[in-house]
Design a protein that fits this description.
The structure is a single chain. The protein starts with a helix and ends in a 14-residue tail after the last helix. It is globular, with a radius of gyration of 12 Å. The longest helix has 15 residues. Helix 2 packs across helix 3 and helix 2 runs antiparallel to helix 4. By secondary structure, it is mainly alpha-helical.
């Protein structure tokens, strides 16, 4: 969950997505060939892992607001 929390904080630098929009982002990563290739270039299966983690993160409702000081790291 710390990886997906970091991902969420990075996304929040641009806008704060709703749960639905954040899960939709994971679907975009999976369905768009260029996005899948980009993310999977870090590790084979990254898109599938990140998609599952995003769904759990959204279901848990872990604060859907950026963590304080999120812009200082990452």
């Amino acid at each position: 969950m710390s990886l997906v929390r970091r991902h969420f904080d990075i996304v929040c630098r641009f806008y704060t997505p709703s749960r639905e929009a954040y899960v939709g982002m994971s679907l975009f990563y999976a369905e768009d060939e260029a996005m899948r290739a980009f993310h999977d270039s870090y590790h084979p299966g990254m898109v599938d892992f990140l998609g599952a983690a995003i769904k759990v993160f959204a279901e848990q409702g872990s604060g859907f607001a950026p963590r304080a000081g999120a812009g200082a790291s990452a």
